[in-house]
Amino acid sequence: MDKNAIAGIYKKVIEPNLKNWVVFEHGTCVIIYHSKEDLENEAKEVLQKYGLPTPGTPSADFEVMKLQGLAGWIVSGNQPGILNYVSEDEGEDKEDYEIGLIGRNKKEQDLKELKIIYIERAS
Length: 123
Description:
The chain is built from four helices and six strands. The protein has helices spanning 3-13, 39-50, 88-91, 96-113, and strands at 21-24, 28-31, 62-66, 73-77, 82-86, 116-120. It has a six-stranded antiparallel beta sheet with strand order 3-4-5-2-1-6, sandwiched between helices.
C-alpha cells in the first residue's frame, strides 16, 4: 500500500486533536501524545520500548476493529498509541484473531526495520 493511502486511512481514524503521528513501512502507526521536536526518533523509541510482544503477557494481546466505510482493520495492543493497519486484501476471509496476528507481525517487521514512510505534524 502506498504511503499516501495509508496516511489517508489514519487521518480518518485518529482523533483530530492527536495530530502528531508517524507511520512505518509495514503500516504501524505511533501516535506521539506530547509535542516533540523530533517525531521520527520519538516514534522509533516508542516502538522499540513497547512494540515487541511477549507471549503470555498483556503485550501479546490485541484488539481488532473493522473500519466502517474504509477497507480493512485497525489492530491495537495494550500500548495506547501504537496501531497497525491490515488491508481488506490481507484479512479477507480471516477470523479476527488471524487479522490480529497479521497486524502484530507487521508491527514486529516495523520494529526490526524502523523505516518511516510518513509523519503527520500538528500545525
